[in-house]
Write a structure and sequence with these properties.
Elements: H1 4-10, E1 15-20, E2 25-33, E3 39-47, E4 54-62, E5 67-72, H2 74-102, H3 119-126
Antiparallel strand pairs: 1-2, 1-5, 2-3, 3-4
Helix pairs in contact: 1-2
Keywords: mRNA processing, mRNA splicing, Nucleus, Ribonucleoprotein, RNA-binding, Spliceosome
Subunit structure: LSm subunits form a heteromer with a doughnut shape.
GO biological process, one term: mRNA splicing, via spliceosome
């Protein structure tokens, strides 16, 4: 599942087209995005609502609440899919490692006579004795 914010973060340093609720569009390279989807663009071209005026803007900060539509390059989408795949692989390996560390008494109390573990305690429990 792709979340919009993770999609935008993967599009950093790539071309991005943004249409505002006012109708203006900005086409430029995204420098950064924050958790409110505020966008920092560099080398942007602003197009008026009716499309007859163009302005070159060296740098602009657009509020996320004013944005109507984002258009992200296909390369950014491919990059996000690859990043998600690598992240899932890493998480799977991490889970397997943690599972291995808990086997064989490495991280459990029960193999060496601690607390309720060990052969003597097991024998006592099975025979109805407290073992203590």
């Amino acid at each position: 599942m792709m979340l919009p914010l993770s999609l935008l973060k993967s599009a950093q340093n790539s071309a991005l087209l943004i249409e505002l609720k006012s109708g203006e569009t900005y086409n430029g390279h995204m420098v950064s995005v924050d958790s409110f989807m505020n966008i920092h663009l560099r080398d942007a071209i602003c197009t008026s609502k009716d499309g007859d005026q163009f302005h070159r803007v060296p740098e602009i900060f657009l509020r996320g609440g004013c944005v109507k539509v984002f258009r992200i390059s296909p390369e950014a989408v491919v990059k996000l899919k690859e990043d998600m795949k690598h992240q899932r692989t890493y998480q799977k390996q991490n889970r397997q490692y943690k599972k291995q560390m808990t086997r064989g008494g490495a991280a459990k109390h029960g193999a060496g006579g601690h607390a309720n573990g060990g052969p003597a305690a097991k024998y006592a429990r099975n025979n109805g004795n407290s073992g203590r």
